[in-house]
Design brief:
648 residues, mainly beta, Immunoglobulin-like, 5 domains, 6-stranded mixed beta sheet, 53 strands, 5% helix, rod-shaped
Length: 648
């Protein structure tokens, strides 16, 4: 037993001997202070070992510690108070398990680095933010013990010890010539969750012993606010994103104030991504994700990833990489839910929804197939792109298909244009079976260059490997004569780089007719008649022989048999109503019929044949016979009536 006791004493003495060496070796660590005093170095050790800096995950505390440590050094002058500002915090696990614990503060001080005494309550020793009122030149060291417990369980305390801090009271004030600003976290979450939306800013004057006071501000309080005294930054909870300037201003004792700033980004946790088609996209949680939270309070962190509100991944990965993208992924929304679980209790943070934009790797490639159908009339020479003998009231259908055969090249802001005969009535326009709304989804614009009504249909965006089936139901109107409309429907829009793109369809032709007989009748002038022309025939002028007296354009679609007649209801009269002693005869092959008072047949057609124009040789057709010699002077005229009748 003695040998054992002796051994213990030797070990104890050995430990006592090496402690000074350890203290000397550690004078440069963050937990100790040293100053020169009368050529001897004074080493100040903390009363208790400070807690290490808290580990964080996207700003969420995984271990206990201080969000705001005291400054290593404060500089002031006699009678000028200094406020040592701190902010201790607990890990999310400790908060979950000790939700009812509250914070209590105990400040300790030393002037010689050896003897520590508790600061009395009357001297602000029980306050988080500790005001020191120096009354003499010198240095005093302080350390804070932040304790979490309930009054019912004071023996179950959580102690969180701060770093050492020194208050140096100088004889004269010192002005700063420069100022540097830093922040603990340069990204804050703007979600409604309060677990990760705060951080602290710090000001570093040059020289370090400047005695001025710091005030804090931000340039946009809608993004974040800041405590003007301690630099505590709090992001907005309205999902507003952007960069905010955190500004420190130091008021110098003798010279003008100086200021500087740092940037903090506020957001929902994820950034939008833009990739080329075929590439992958990676969404990463913003903020510090390096913390592992291992402080002896084991808990779990899981991250669930969602695409368009459907869970696609679950685990511990703080990023998600998509498979190779296609244009179908364009516009997809991704978000993450971070779950913190301890002893059956879970807290969660949900990020914003980040948008994925997929850029096509190729241009649009449009194919157009277009067909014409006349539902009112079938012509033997009609085909998919030619309609013949189309007339008013016909029901003409345009059936077209537009296909983007490109793999991923979209046609954006696309429009399809079909030239129509001016006056055509549009009954309906359908795209993929859906009836469109006039003015809203399509318009008709008169094209003066082609004399057509251009039907313009809005197609929006056509992605690769998509089609639009278009059906245009029309009623023909406004056809006054034969007319051939040759046209090409076409589509136009913009590619992924906003370059103009257009493509024409197949040539189409619609041959219109009025379904009527159009006739132009020439006047017949028999020239001058002499008083001695009795019983003579007066022929038409030579230029009217073998030329069309009646110019006929037969545009009937149904060519039924016709008979054409001419008749004269009144005598030839002059201005004095004198009657010309003459009769108009219709000659054919040497025989004639009097036209006055008779309906004389001049032409006849068979079924399926057009009515021909009327032209006669000199001895045929209408010839004037002079019946007597009594020819009062004057200009004589009469009116001929031309009649068409269907043959049965």
């Amino acid at each position: 037993m003695r040998h054992h006791k002796h051994a213990k004493r030797i070990i104890k003495n050995f430990l006592l001997l090496i402690i000074p060496f350890i203290l000397l070796a550690m004078v440069t660590t963050s937990t100790e202070k040293s100053i020169k005093a009368e050529n001897d170095e004074l080493v100040v050790s903390p009363r208790k070992t400070p807690n290490p800096p808290p580990k964080k995950f996207i700003g969420i505390w995984m271990t206990n510690g201080y969000g705001l440590q005291p400054n290593p050094d404060y500089y002031t002058t006699v009678g000028d108070p200094v406020v040592i500002r701190t902010d201790a915090g607990r890990s999310i696990w400790t908060v979950i398990l000790g939700v009812f614990d509250s914070a209590h503060y105990r400040w300790w001080q030393t002037t010689d680095g050896k003897k520590w005494t508790e600061v009395s309550k009357s001297n602000n020793g029980h306050r988080k933010n500790f005001e020191v009122k120096p009354d003499k030149v010198g240095t005093v060291w302080y350390q804070l013990d932040t304790q979490y417990y309930t009054y019912l369980t004071p023996y179950l305390k959580t102690h969180i010890y701060s770093n050492l801090t020194a208050v140096h009271t100088l004889e004269d004030p010192v002005d700063a010539t420069d100022l540097t600003v830093t922040v603990d976290d340069d990204y804050l979450y703007s979600t409604k969750d309060e677990l990760s939306n705060t951080t602290y800013a710090h000001a570093h004057p040059d020289p370090a012993n400047a005695t001025g006071k710091i005030k804090w501000s931000v340039n946009d309080t809608s993004l974040a606010t800041i405590d003007p005294d301690d630099g505590h930054i709090t992001a907005n909870k309205n999902n507003k994103s952007g960069d905010v300037e955190v500004i420190a201003t130091m008021t110098n004792p003798n010279t003008a104030p100086i200021s500087n700033h740092a940037i903090v980004t506020v957001g929902g946790g994820l950034d939008d991504r833009k990739v080329n088609s075929g590439e992958t996209a990676t969404f990463e949680l913003r903020g510090d994700t390096a913390g592992d939270g291992d402080d002896g309070n084991s808990g779990s962190i899981t991250i669930d990833w969602y695409k368009n509100d459907k869970k696609i991944s679950s685990g511990t990965a703080d990023s998600y990489t998509t498979p190779n993208t296609t244009m179908a992924d364009d516009g997809s929304l991704f978000h993450a839910v971070i779950n913190f679980k301890k002893s059956g209790i879970t807290r969660s943070i949900t990020t914003n929804q980040a948008k994925l934009t997929v850029i096509p790797s190729s241009e649009p490639d449009i194919e157009i197939t277009n067909n014409l159908i006349n539902k009112s009339f079938s012509h033997e020479k009609n085909d998919n792109n030619i309609l013949n003998d189309v007339t008013n009231s016909d029901n003409v259908i345009y059936q077209d298909t537009i296909t983007n055969i490109s793999d991923d090249g979209p046609l954006k802001d696309a429009f399809y244009v079909v030239p129509l005969h001016s006056g055509t009535q549009i009954n309906s326009v359908k795209v993929n079976g859906e009836t469109l709304s006039a003015e809203k989804d399509y318009t008709v614009i008169f094209n003066s260059d082609t004399d057509t009504d251009d039907l313009t249909i809005e197609l929006n965006t056509m992605n690769g490997k998509t089609s639009k089936d278009i059906e245009i139901d029309t009623t023909v109107a406004g056809v006054l004569n034969t007319y051939s409309l040759e046209f090409k429907p076409y589509v136009y829009g913009f590619d992924s780089e906003n370059r103009f793109y257009s493509k024409e369809g197949t040539d189409e032709t619609i041959n219109y007719l009025s379904d009527k007989i159009h006739a132009q009748i020439k006047k017949i002038d028999f020239g001058q008649i002499t008083p001695y022309s009795k019983d003579t025939l007066l022929h038409r002028p030579q230029e009217l022989n073998e030329s069309n007296i009646v110019d006929v354009n037969d545009q009937r679609r149904d060519k039924s048999a016709l008979k054409a007649f001419v008749s004269q209801k009144e005598e030839f009269l002059n201005d004095n109503n004198d009657i010309l002693p003459a009769s108009l005869r219709y000659y054919e092959n040497g025989s004639y019929q009097n036209v006055l008072g008779n309906q004389v047949k001049v032409s006849e057609t068979d079924v399926g044949s057009k009515l021909s124009s009327l032209a006669w040789k000199k001895e045929d057709g209408l010839i004037l016979h002079i019946n007597g010699n009594h020819l009062p002077a004057g200009q004589y005229s009469t009116t001929l009536t031309w009649t068409l009748e269907s043959s049965i």
